[in-house]
# Entry
Amino acid sequence: MAYLFLPLVSPLVLLVAAFYAARHPGRRPGLVPKLTEAAAFAAFATTVVVATLLEVKGPGTSALIGLFGVGLSVRLDAVSAVMLVLVSFIGWIVLRYSKTYMDGEARQGAFTSWMSATLAAVLFLVMSGNLLQLFVAWTLTSLSLNRLLLFYPERATAQRAAHKKAIVARLSEGALAGAVILLIAETGTTDIETILASVEANWLTMAAALLIAMSAALASAQFPVHGWLTEVMEAPTPVSALLHAGVINAGGFLLIRFADVMLLAPGVMALLVMLGGFTALFGGLVMLTQPAVKTSLAWSTIAQMAFMVMQCGLALFPLALLHIVAHSLYKAHAFLSSGEAVRNVAAIRRPGPIAVPSARNVLQAFAAAIVIYGLVGIILGFDEKSIQAIALGVILIFGVAYLLAQGFADAAPRELMQRTAIYALVTSVSYFALQVVALSLTDGSLPPTPAPGPLEWALIILALVSFGCVAVAQATFPLWASHPAAAGLRVHLTNGLYANAIFDKLLDGWSRRPAA
Amino acid sequence: MFAKLESYPAALLELVAEANNAARAIPPLFPLSANVAVNPFLGQAGEPLAVTAARLARVGGVRITPSRAHWARKLDAGEIAETDLLDALSAIDGRFTAPSLQDIKAALEDEAAAPNAIPTVAELAADVSGIDWPALIEDRIGAWAAGHFDQGQALWQQVNTGGAFNAWRDFASRDLTPEIQGLKGFCSFVSKTNRSHWRAIGRASEKLGVTTGAAPTAFHRWLMTLGGWAQYGRYLLWQAELDGEQESTVTELLAVRMVFDQALFNLYEDQISARWSEAVAAHQTPVTPTGDIVIDAVLQDAAERAEQRVLADRLLRATPRTVRGRPDVQAVFCIDVRSEVFRRALESQDENIETIGFAGFFGLASAHKAAGSDVIERRGPVLLNPGVTTQAAEPEKTNLDRRYAARAKRAWGRFKLAAVSSFAFVEATGPLYAGKLVRDALGLGGVAKVDPAPQLDQKIDLQTRVGMANSVLTAMSLTDNFARIVMLTGHGADVVNNPHESALHCGACGGYTGDVNARLLAGLLNDPEVQLGLRKEGTEIPADTVFLPAMHHTTTDSVTLYEYDLPQGDSTAGLAQLKEWLATAGKLARAERAKRLPRATGAGTIQQRARDWAETRPEWGLAGCRAFVAAPRYRTGGANLSGQAFLHNYDWKRDEGFGVLELIMTAPVVVASWISLQYYGSTVAPALFGGGNKLLHNVVGGIGVLEGNNGAPRPGLPWQSVHDGNGLQHDPLRLSVIIEAPREAMSEILARHPGIRELFDNGWLHLIAMDDKGALAWRYSGDLKWTPFRGQPDVACAIAAE
# Structure
């Protein structure tokens, strides 16, 4: 079972790099950038080997390096393997980027050191075999991230954002600590595998599930404590990339890791659906109004994390894991390439005006999308799918309808319609194919989705109706956006419904600090 | 507009005039899609550096000259000699009390105190309330303005009818943020302001006691707090004035800013009214430089004189290089300082290569449409209106396919960003981004396809075409002795993931690459009918001459030849040889530039920079520029000018009536001065005129970059573009313009163009006349007067001895 210790190599290599970099904190720190990139690549390569070994030898939990349940142990299964490969891959890309990007900065070495340390902490977190390791890695992640958010400590806006983030992180850690204590009290062990196998429904478990949900929601920047995430462009771009693609996933990981515990608390799951569903629509709508590229990406992260939280609430844990992977890869690329925004915006206007779909076109598009869904479903098979998964598919197909609607617009030429129809078809097939992959990869590692009860049914219908309304609204958008009432709504949405402004006010965020 | 003003009281009309003047006191910020260098002191060209320094200290709280330590270092190193200081002192403007040499030396001992701007109401309110009102106002105006000026980043665009002020009123009367932070009743206060921004300015001025006497710098002060937003408004005004239209965005933004201060004044009047009266009184005093500022201005002038000495020396010591007989190749390059390095490298390949410097838009300022595009790109100097309309010519079917592909891509982009569909996008295509991450991390991205050749508007008749060809060739001083290959070389940078890409392209082409203009001119000159017409006007182009369009990639020093543009049947003898020369010259140029670039371990590593998405310093652009020479190439040909000089070919003996000289002094010289002063401003006052830290850039509205997550777009060059981490890569020196031409001719031109003259009279540019031996002989000392140029004393002796 020695292979179960192999994952530890990844964070350890990065920690060594972090210590080396810390000794050369200044400008142009010699070999530090190159060695750190090499360390990150080694960490990534290790996780690939680990994933292969998992496929060959099967899942398991390593022995504990430590005493009395305190120490390091590795839980290796589909969830941790996927997260390890994902995080270390993003880590390699981001550190490679930083090697060039940060060149000439006065504190380049220190930056590199904290980046590696943060990455190591996330890797320790996702491989945790026991609760204490999980908690410590969770806390270290946000502490070292804080150092990165304050890379330019003199910037007032950076301080404001970091202060808010710190408060949210402390709350999240408090909730997680509570959950850890409850779970140990109930099961008498810190070993996660044992806990997941032996946990039973009772009020202790319910309370633990609630605390886990709170901790995860706080860590995933859910409404109303999302504000800090939209303000951390005050740190260099690689920090944003690592944060949005590596660190922010911690909340989702927590929910997926404790899926067996969460399933014992249907009330908590319902809360997650409501919170996630609301934040997803809220974040998605606010994103529409954001004129700055990184800010828009940050709102997109809030929405995507919320969608993932909702998937967890619907007990679709494998799909939530898929969402984490897909979102991280997309968002890392989007942040690192955000300098292309000037070219991208300029390209929008070149080929002439946009063909606006009429209400009739939009209806046609929705009908076509549902037909596509039906066809793909029949081919790939609906029978094995849970009601929740089918409903989720409907929500996604609502999104695809928008793509079709743009091609169906009366002013759009036939060639454009053909192209958008092909895109829509490929997107739908790809989506369902990826679902199949996610389900088969996590088969056995994650609990199956239970049949919905009345509460779940109500939530599913609520979600379908609200996402459906917003989907229609987004497709018919140019028809109503210039209405004065819409202009008023837009102002409030631009400001994120003031949740962040109120948070600032409570913390005296706009107070003028004495010039230090 | 004026009809509306007639009903205003006289006092308001005076304020209107002052507000309009204040709008012209700030420089324009061109959008990043086609960004050109702008003189940040454009509005201050009518006054010398010392007065501008005093003005900007008052309204912006910044110094606009380098630190004293910078000067002390230069004096210690002997880069500035005592004679330079004495010369600068004797040239000092009579209005100022001249310091003594001792004063200056004493001043170098320690830094001058950082200036304090006269406070705004918001700053006074912050002092008494502990709430950071200036930052909050900046944040709120930014939140609105980013949406207002957005060119397509947000899918849900703000409605912008009725001008900036009314759009802001609609926003601010609903935005609850100021109220949450303590500005009680602000929404209703805003909705009660007058819909006319002039009346709002009048009302606020009245409440705040801003008199006509205080208005000039008080208004300027408020506009300064708006940063890039006001400057973007100034750009809109610039464009409107070129088109002969009215525009009032800047003054509308001024009204917005004043309404905030008016509201704050209402709130804190008891606590701040005394200090505010002091501030208004301070605005009423005339702008006069302090002794410290005068010393800084003298040091600046001395440093520039020292630099001119060095240049004079380099030119004198160089062995002139001349091509005898008919050259094999004439390579025309843009005057851009980056061309100097490459031209020198190319000339070293063979003695029969001649290079020529000419403004890179090649005399054809065009309103161009790229392939499959409806957007008109103004590819010419931003001082001019385009003279011709052009488009990339291709068959209808190809064009339509291109458009369908672009529209489908756009539909996909909207799908990616819309509220509900973004989830479907991520779940279906997210994993593909693993491939994109690897591709971009390893720099494996492909190269952009070349557009089809541009074509002049078919409506332009032959006679006009001949006229255009004739005037361009005359302006180039190229009317006989044509080589077999005349290479017309535009230039552009190859960078990825760089919001400031256009700042690295051709400034003479409006911030676009120069390929279109080069291909246009080549197409024009290769036309047999045009050549026939030219022959009638006395310009004989040999039958075997071809005009070969090309593009110099400044990041990699490679040259693309558009040989497929050449008319069918043209033999391409000599082309293989030319390609070889270009390849070797490219290697030499890369090796020379690699010495300056961080992490460039040799010429081989340069190419990678063009594809590296993490590279913040792909090339140095025009950093280091300090001189402009208009003279025949043999005057500069033997000298290594280190990529610091704009070189324009000019032979005054062939310039009857000095029409070409007038063109050079009024167009390329002005473009060069904008570039030089932009580098100057971004280096000495990065907080005010610099583009900020690239690591924090957040592209807003597709037009500018925010530093971090809020505020106003940053104008000018990012810090990484002028500083390599260890030190400045641009020495902040104002441009020295050296022209070989009779002084009287230059004086006459200056007298005819007061706008150009004030740049020289006030020292924003230096003008030096070169004599017929190629020596710097006369210095323009202002007021249409000239004084003998004092060169390097030892050199003069050495030459006399020879």
Summary: The mean pLDDT of chain B is 93. Residues 405 and 755 of chain B are 47 Å apart (CA to CA). Chain B touches chain A through 106 residues (CB under 8 Å).
